Amino acid sequence: MASVPQDHGHDHAHDHDHHPTGLMRYLTTTNHKDIGSMYMWFSFVMFISGGIMALLIRAELFQPGLQILQPERFNQLTTLHGIVMIFGAIMPAFVGFANWMLPLQLGAPDMAFARMNNWSFWLLPPAAILLIGSFFVPGGAAAGGWTLYPPLSIQAGMGMDMMIFAVHIMGASSIMGSINIITTILNLRAPGMTMMKMPMFAWTWLITAFLLIATMPVLAGAVTMLLTDRHFGTTFFNAAGGGDPVMFQHIFWFFGHPEVYIIALPAFGVVSQIIPTFSRKPLFGYASMVYATASIAILSFIVWAHHMYTTGLPVAGQLYFMYATMLIAVPTAAKIFNWLATMWRGSITLETPMLFCLGFLFLFTMGGFTGLVLSLTPVDIQLHDTYYVVAHFHYVMVAGALFSAFAAVYYWGPKWTGWMYEEKHGKIHFWWSLIAFNVTFFPQHFLGLAGMPRRIPDYNMQFTEWNQVSSIGAFAFGTAQLYFIWIVIRMIRGKSGIRAAAKPWDGAEGLEWTVPSPAPYHTFETPPIVK
Amino acid sequence: MQHTQSNTPQSATLRRRIVGAAAALASVAASADWKMNLQTPNSAVAEQMFHLHTLITVICAVIFVAVFGVMFYSLYKHRKSVGHKAANFHENATVEVIWTVIPFLILLVMAWPATKAVLDMRDSSAPEMTIKVTGYQWKWGYDYIHDGFGYVSTLATPLAQIKGQETKGENYLLEVDNPLVVPVGKKVRVLITANDVLHAWWVPALGVKQDAIPGFIRDAWFRADRPGIYRGNCAELCGKEHGYMPIVVEVKTQADYDKWLAAQKDKYGVGKVAAAVVEVDTKVYTREELVAHGKTVYEGVGGCQGCHQPNGKGAGAFPALDGSKLVNGGKAEQIALLLNGKAGTAMAAFKHLSDKDLAGVMAYTRSSWSNKAAEFAQPLDFAKARNGGVLPAGTTTAAAPEAAATPAAGAAAPAAGGLPAKIFFATGKKELPADAKESIAAAIAFLKGKADAKVNVTGYTDQTGNREANLELAKERAKAVRAALEAAGIDTARINMKKPEEITGGADNKSARRVEISAGA
User: Fold this and answer.
1) What is the pLDDT of residue B516?
2) pLDDT, chain A, mean
3) What integer is the mean pLDDT of A489-512?
4) Residue A335: inside a domain
5) Backbone angles phi, psi at B170, to 5 degrees
6) Of A410, B1, B200, B459, which one is least surrounded by beta carbons within 10 A?
7) Selecting from 3.30.70.890, 1.10.287.90, 3.30.710.10, 3.60.20.10, what CATH number does the domain B38-121 have?
8) Shortest CA gap B32–chain A (Å)
9) Among A82-96, A268-282, B138-152, B414-428, which is the least confidently predicted range?
10) pLDDT tens digits, residue range A339-370?
11) Euclidean distance between CA atoms B300 and B361, whole angstroms
């Protein structure tokens, strides 16, 4: 036999100091900083897309009657607004922060599975194309609400199938991202950094990643059952074939309720980093904060049916889910008190990141209280599926996630870009957002109480006044976010003229502030020692 | 949703409490609506919901002010700019225990009235009347199951108001053609289900919101305190016209209700000899007559154009009629589709419409746009299709009223010969098998035939397994049969539940697992 010829064909492009440039750099990158940045840009694009949908909805609701949208299109917009904001905007934003910051905070050279990291990100754009593209297929986008309840979702056209596949893809991306985060946190911490010395952001992400791994397959299962009911003659959710439409709701919310905390916990982590920095005082009750986060995560698995009080649960079920839901208030309150105690007798300054954290506290507490109101079954019977619920979850989601995401961008942005942002613009952005947010969503409590259902394109004249206030607020809030991206671009371009120091915040703690700003492409190739 | 309600004492108090700034806004525009609170309750359950909401909102507001008072004090006093030096404490077990225990105690205080309200709200036992509510895309069906009639309730707001071509009326989108009518002070149990997708039946003032689930029956109840008209909406997203299927409940005094009930019974022919009820329209119409009539139905309120569009081109999931094979094909398929709808799609059954309406729609769709089908149908064709392809007995005069929607309608009435009937169950199951319908229909036919007749219902099980569990199962099976009879409008008093004389039921296990219905005394 001839000898096997030696293969000289491999080049040395995988040499780690040499990487492609331009588009190929981003397509092939395994660098956590590149991937983190891509996640954030993707998130912002989706945030703007979802925001445009929201503004179309608010424009239609500015007055009674049908003006600019037909009901079917309206339903498509509410459905896609929800899915795009949750899966496209909020979750990728925090995965982006995790990618950028976890290796820096833990003293790791990169994420544990660098190639999988690339794949986790690049799954997202096809999912986004499926979602946005579904508006242009026959029958339009899915219109059954982001909760996809059957049998309505079984009636829908092919937009629903595109949504189902998008959910599958995004779920796979989330699971891979979570595996990566868990492995990084458990295995790549710098020597000396014990679990109980980790930054809170790492703790909240560790717990979040477990929530994701536990719940994403559940959602994937639920939408797969929808798919087979739609096309392959199964009857999981059809009573005529022995199925039950309500079973979908149980499965969906078994994913859906932990999902709320998947969004909220990393936000708690960001806030727990920023408040100590600007109070110049260590985080109060670090250990109890960790325990509270874990308790919230565990409780989140046993309260799902509080989204289903009106389906006709048995009395015992209604009582159990009411009590369990009320219980979540205890660890959540403990967190709020911990943050207050961190500020107490500190030496507080109010830079933009701190302002956004205070805005977060204020709005999230309000959303928490309305959550408590809704946890009471008899009250929820009146308020379920009304604008009160819309107001409630926007207080939780927008305040919980978006405000802390803004805080994170202002707080870590100098580390990413090497430039400070312009403080004056940051502060205007904060006040503009805070006021516009409240003008948009506070009146929706009143609308819900007075009896306006959610997901309707048209309403009785008695609801006109508050809807007009809300729509005006929404456009102001949307504009504020264009202002935000202008501020960020100016920061990237160094328009403030102030170079960021390695540690731009005098009260900040942590390994991320020991590397220069902007952070070099490769960091911690030799692990730092944590004492 | 009366317009005076924002001036009631409760809402005024709460308004002061919620948020000062917003309240100021509201008083500026006192004449406009600016409603900020729950509607004035008109039932004991709604009353409890109202007060529970007020209580928890006040508790939350107090805590909110206290917590953020502390925060703002800290922000004011502990700032670097006023020279405050940071302390360095970061733990205090006592404080942490206190702020865990106190919220817990507050929750207990809230849980108590909430639990009482839940128990009250869900106790639908001993109702004084029962009405079956069915959600359709996009209308509500109300069946007065003990009175033997029912009707459909659809939005009454004209399309021109929705499109802004006419001034909107006061009850824009909250008005229907046939409201649900109930007597004041009576405990009304509503059995709620749906025909196609999820809906939710919601009347805020009565404190009822219950999802309508296709294939399942859920119940809720209310007892209206005062007569009046109470309005609500479908609360569960149910497709395109989710925002256009309001609920209107008219609460009447007992005397008015009795008058209304008598008029309805008259209208729907309840209690009359079947032959005298509704006449079959045997007239032969010209195509032009039917097309002209059909156009009014197609384009009317709640008409076909809502989905299929005025130009017949359809929209999204709703297929085009223009050029449709079915519309241009043989008439039998279209008759069946119009009467029965199409399972798994938004196409609902329209058998509550009259034969003439349906024939009109059919002729109209077959003669409009590019459609030029040769065939069309007469009202008589629909009457036949409703009755299994033959004219009802004694035609030219009569047929059973379809709108009455009594489940027995259409079931040919065998004499008591149908009894005793046996219904066989699957091992360990108490749910009615699919083939139970015939036996149930036989029992119903028997009971309808004689006003004073009763039936005995007896459950049996096989002999395998625990004897007590078997007895319990037998009872449950019998109850399932009783429930089916009740759902068909049979008075509970006419159903005797008999214990089996012996628990054995023959050698064959399959034939042992059964419920027997026999003629009783």
Assistant:
1) 80
2) 93
3) 94
4) yes
5) -60, -35
6) B1
7) 1.10.287.90
8) 8
9) B414-428
10) 999 999 999 999 999 999 999 999 999 999 99
11) 11
Q: Could you tell me the CATH number of the domain that includes residue A71?
A: 1.20.210.10
Query: Residues A84-87: contacts with CB within 8 Å, 24+ apart?
Result: A84/A46, A84/A49, A84/A50, A84/A53, A84/A128, A84/A131, A84/A132, A85/A46, A85/A47, A85/A50, A85/A397, A86/A146, A86/A259, A86/A263, A86/A397, A87/A127, A87/A166, A87/A167, A87/A170
**Rounded CA gap, A319 and A326, in Å?**
11
Establish if A304 belongs to a structural domain: yes
Domain of residue A346, residue span: 28-514
- Per-residue pLDDT band for A156 (boundaries 50, 70, 90) equals confident
Does residue B456 contact residue B518 with C-beta atoms inside 8 Å? Answer: yes
User: Does residue A77 form part of some domain?
Assistant: yes
Q: Is B64 touching A (CB cutoff 8 A)?
A: yes
Classify the C-alpha dihedral B202-B208-B209-B213 as positive or negative. negative
- pLDDT top residue among A514 and B16: A514
Domain B129-271 has CATH 2.40.110.10: no
Tell me the β-bridge partners of B250: B181, B229
Helices A464-492 + A423-450 axis angle, to 10: 160
- Evaluate if residue A107 carries a pLDDT over 70: yes
Q: Which CATH number fits domain B416-520: 1.10.530.10, 3.40.50.720, 3.40.50.2300, 3.30.1330.60?
A: 3.30.1330.60
Residues 6+ apart with CB under 8 A from B90: A281, A282, A283, A284, A285, A286, A342
Residue for token digits 């922060």?
A: A97
Structural domains counted in chain A = 1
CATH of domain B287-386: 1.10.760.10
- At residue B425, the pLDDT reads 79
pLDDT for B394:
53
Q: Which residue of A has its CA nearest to B88?
A: A281
Residue extents of the structural domains in chain B: 38-121, 129-271, 287-386, 416-520
DSSP element (H, E) containing B149: strand B149-153
Nearest CA in chain B to A458: B243
Sheet containing B188-194: give its strands across: B149-153, B139-144, B129-136, B188-194, B218-222
Say whether pLDDT at A74 is over 80.
Answer: yes
Predicted pLDDT at B418: 60
What is residue B504's predicted lDDT score, i.e. its pLDDT? Answer: 53
* Tokens matching residue B346: 């938004």
Q: Count helices and strands (H / E) in chain A.
A: 19, 0
CA distance A73 to A140: 8
As averages over each run of 10 residues, the pLDDT of chain B (521 residues) reads 42 45 44 81 95 95 95 93 87 90 93 94 93 94 92 92 90 94 96 95 96 95 96 95 95 96 88 54 84 84 78 78 86 86 76 84 89 85 78 50 39 50 77 76 75 79 75 82 80 80 57 77 60
* Alpha-carbon span A259 to A307, nearest angstrom: 13
Catalytic (active-site) positions of A: 81, 110, 146, 173-174, 257, 259, 261, 272, 306-307, 332, 335, 454
CA distance A366 to chain B (A): 8
- For B214, the closest chain A residue by CA position comes to A239
Chain B residues with CB under 8 Å of A152 CB are: 197-198, 237-239
Are A369 and B60 spatial neighbours (Cβ–Cβ below 8 Å)?
A: yes
Residue from A385, A386, A506, A509 whose CB has the most chain B CBs within 10 Å, to mutate: A385
Residue of B218, B235, B238 lying closest to A384 (CB–CB): B235
Whether A12 is in a domain gets the answer no
What integer pLDDT is reported at residue A186 of this predicted model?
Answer: 97
